């Protein structure tokens, strides 16, 4: 099973995990880490490293970061030089991506799961009135 780590500002990641688990049920090997104002970079990097090691069952860990170039992502990148587990990090996640990761993490290798989750993020963005238009056109 691929581990899932969500690194975000404050408690955004915890809320995302809780919401996904509300939909799918309790998930093993999943954790959220929040980066709070005043946190030490070194301490957060150590937390990321420890979390990835703890979540890795041998299949790797998929890390979701809230924002490319922001502290949680940058600190994960900084920690990567000391992490011995296989992991990938996707910046800019959505709830459909986390649900997809939980649903498919026993069916794919880490690189495949990463790509599937990125594609889910792209296709998961929809605009209400465009979807109604497509529905109406399809059901004439």
UniProtKB/TrEMBL annotation:
The keyword Kinase applies. The keyword Cytoplasm applies. CDD domains: PTS_IIA_man. One of its GO terms (biological process) is phosphoenolpyruvate-dependent sugar phosphotransferase system. Keywords: Cytoplasm, Kinase, Phosphotransferase system, Sugar transport, Transferase, Transport. SUPFAM superfamilies: PTS system fructose IIA component-like. It is found in: Cytoplasm. Residues 1-125 form the PTS EIIA type-4 domain. InterPro entries: Bacterial_PTS_sugar_comp, PTS_EIIA_man-typ, PTS_EIIA_man-typ_sf, PTS_IIA_man. Transmembrane segments: none annotated. It holds the Pfam family EIIA-man. Its main location: cytoplasm. GO terms for cellular component: cytoplasm; membrane. GO terms for molecular function: kinase activity. This is PTS system fructose subfamily IIA component. It comes from Pelosinus fermentans B4.
